[in-house]
Write a structure and sequence with these properties.
The chain has about 325 residues and is of the alpha/beta class. The protein has a single domain, classed as Rossmann fold (3-Layer(aba) Sandwich). About 60% of the residues lie in helices and about 10% in strands. The protein is built from 13 helices and nine strands. Strand 2, helix 4 and strand 3 form a beta-alpha-beta unit. Helix 5 runs parallel beside helix 6 and helix 8 packs antiparallel against helix 10.
Amino acid sequence: MVFTDSLAAYLAEVILSHLALTCVFLLATLAAVRWYIRDSYKVDGFSQKHVLITGCDSGFGNLLAKQLDRKGFQVMAACLTEKGAADLAAAASPRLKTFLLDVTDSASIRKAVESVSREVGERGLWGLVNNAGRSTPIGPTEWMKLEDFTKVLDVNLIGVIDVTLQFLPLLKKARGRVVNVASILGRLSLTGGGYCLSKWGVEAFSDSLRRNMQHFGINVSIIEPGFFKTNVTRVDLIDADLRRLWSRLPQDVKDSYGATYLDEYMKAQAFSMGLLCSPDISKVTRCMEHALTARFPRRRYAAGWDAKLFWIPLSYLPSFVADFIVNVILPSPKQNM
């Protein structure tokens, strides 16, 4: 009896001494369960909802268009090329509609708005997915000219802004969704050129748009993919453009990097891309789909385990840590100080 009383007293002491910790654990568990349940709620009436996706010739946009088409959405897929539009139309149901759109051309966007307006009528546009993008020219900043930056910014940032502004009236009608594709390079500038700048800009534009348009019932979500195998990360295209940039450099600039620098840079880039790029782009399109179908869409989606577990955590660390990692991955110029 004495032993039983002592054990009970000991257990009571342990429980009371850890009561605060136990309460915190229980509250955290309940919060996680509540978040999971809330995150799983879906909107209804997919067949009555129109979604416009840019950049559907290949990659994320192409797969998302097919994915939403299978779900019953009224998908309007914007492609840059006639071949891209024809191939996608052949792979989808008759419900999916394709059209040509150049996001760098305001007149092309206005024409698309007129076409989409006739299609959606008074229902408005439920979803706009700003997916169109390009990566090149990309590489050391000193190798760039102003037009190299603007080529990328015109598509990845100015194009996103122009498309969004012109389609906002239709989105307000439907109290719809805007899904903007940024990147982990919108958190960490790991290379030169316009790509990182454009994705930082997409992050900022999306945040301000979300805060402005929430009063009208419009949700804005940002997709932050890690590295995936798409045309944006095709090493052969990036290498070809790097050779173009190198070939036009003044000789004194080439000498400062060294004769072997370009080859070493391309080898390091090919190795890192091969190591990092995931072939499973559905990890990204599932995030996009959730942003369009969830009753409570998230503000940001980190797509890919490299984004979740490495790049985004790295973005919160002191800058010298990211600097060190880049210096380990890429070669140093000959005149390294």
